[in-house]
Amino acid sequence: MKVTIIGAGNVGASTCFLLASKNICSEIVLIDIVEDMAIGKAIDISQSCSAFGVDTLVYAQNEYSKISNSDIVVITAGVPRKPGMSREDLLQTNAKIISSVTDEIKKYAPNSIIIVVSNPLDVLTYVTLKLSGFEKSRVIGMGGMLDSARMTQAIFDELGYPSSKINSLVIGTHGEEMLPLARFTFVDGKNLEEITDKASLEKIIQKTKSGGAEIVKRLGTSAYYAPAASVCILIDAIIKDKKTIHPCSTLLQGEYGSNDVCIGVPVVIGKNGIEKIEELSLNDKESQEFIDSVNAIKKMINILKI
Ligand code: APR
Fold first, then answer.
1. How far is the CA of 117 from the centre of ligand 1 (A)?
2. I need a labelling partner for 113 at 20 to 30 A (CA). Which of 88, 191, 201, 238 fits?
3. Whose CA is nearest to atom 20 of ligand 1?
């Protein structure tokens, strides 16, 4: 398996390092407009492969023709959030970058599965899908998996259960209007709503929603280790054809009562990418929140006039 990672910054390089250490692909190509930085990181990660005794070949390239035959292409190119910025503030800048990157993927890796990581995630997943012309199964937005990991951490912080006993689910946009779903989150086999009071539940939900912003505030840039871990889980599920269910941004065509929008919902991930959308039966409150989430994304799509 050949994986290309476009953008060798914090998220791209962390993904490359973690993926290389897993020894599940034959080649990883790093691409960045800052060529020497990408080469330097690729050399460092290659040396980590030597230390681990891993045979994955890691190298950097600045010519897009070298991404040909990639099975998976991960897009992390773009600018990250700075303190005080929302993911939406990145819209125009990152949309331009993603458009140029998508043209190259379409040209040189037309059979690949694309994983979009750059923000604002759902809008950029939509842009990538439309500009690439790929089937919707081959364009996956990685956002809900990260938010679900943050919810799991918030449950641990609040209730003390280990992450191995927690199965969290966050759907909707990878942004302020995300939906941490207590009704579909299970802790030690029990529903989260059953084992927590209203105040704790509210804390968990708020902590999940602000999990990314807190890192930006303290670190001065956005998160990269947990995003990289989430991308690696997705790549592993594709390479091993696992058919596991993860919340990812995908194009809705009538599912959840919505159309022509990419948004996070539970999907089955296997060798073909997104193989199925799972439809949850949302109650009235959840459905309304989901519609709010859809509208927030559509507003940004309209700004771009895609
Ligand atoms: N082609 C290739 N690489 C590019 C391009 C481009 N057209 N434009 C920018 N880049 C590169 C930058 O040179 C930089 O190395 O993308 C990289 C982004 O890395 P960082 O600035 O470290 O940002 P990072 O934290 O990795 O976040 C990247 O992922 O999680 C999202 O919100 C985040 O949109 C942001 C993206």
1. 10
2. 88
3. 9
